[in-house]
Design a protein that fits this description.
- The two termini are 27 Å apart.
- Helix 1 runs antiparallel to helix 3 (73-83).
- It is globular, with a radius of gyration of 14 Å.
- A hairpin with a 6-residue loop joins strand 2 (39-46) and strand 3 (53-60).
- By secondary structure, it is α+β, with helices and mostly antiparallel strands.
- Helices cover 32% and strands 27% of the residues.
- The chain has a four-stranded antiparallel beta sheet.
């Protein structure tokens, strides 16, 4: 199954003691992101072996949709909230899936 559009991974490491702040900020940015027209999927992850490491998986209908997302007020606010909280700058990796399968996410309930 080919995933349409653009797939983006974002990687960030919280400063010691800032894990809760980063987690809250990322989770609060999720609902408005999921409502964006170009958004096809958005998931927030925290590493099981390193609670300071956070990863985002984002699926967009295309590059223009992702660029528009980066200009949205909730994302501009998120970037500001994360400035002091991150040990290293946010890393964004834009990709195109070239093989494999993607299954719907299982509910965490």
């Amino acid at each position: 199954m080919r995933v349409p559009g653009l797939v983006v991974f974002a990687r960030m490491r919280a400063n010691v003691g800032w894990e809760g702040h980063v987690r809250t900020a990322l989770l609060e940015a999720m609902p408005p992101t999921l409502l964006e027209e170009a958004n096809l999927g958005y998931a927030v992850h925290q590493a099981a072996t390193d609670p300071r490491l956070f990863l985002l998986y984002e699926q967009w209908s295309g590059k223009a949709g992702f660029e528009n997302h980066m200009q949205q007020p909730h994302i501009r606010e998120l970037v500001q909230r994360l400035q002091e909280a991150l040990a290293v700058p946010l890393e964004i990796i834009e990709t195109e899936m070239i093989g494999g399968e993607v299954a719907p996410a299982a509910s965490g309930d």
